[in-house]
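Here is my example:
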Amino acid sequence: MEISVSEAKGKLTELVRRAEAGHDVVLTRHGRATVALVPVRPRQDAEARRAALASVQTTAARRRTAGPDAARSQDFLYGDSGLPE
């Protein structure tokens, strides 16, 4: 839904409810879209972010496979002249 800023002044409560319900609400100025009303998602607290990060690190550590390291990769990509093969 697009609505001009001047028209939105009288309908702000209704527009906020629509945005909270998941509808696209775009405010326009002189016919050009300038602002979108979007619902605010609750932020995770620091402890929840730490737990999520620890979970990702644990999963990544279990999936790690042995292979050539980055320092050795140049041996396969570049010749003795230092140029790509």
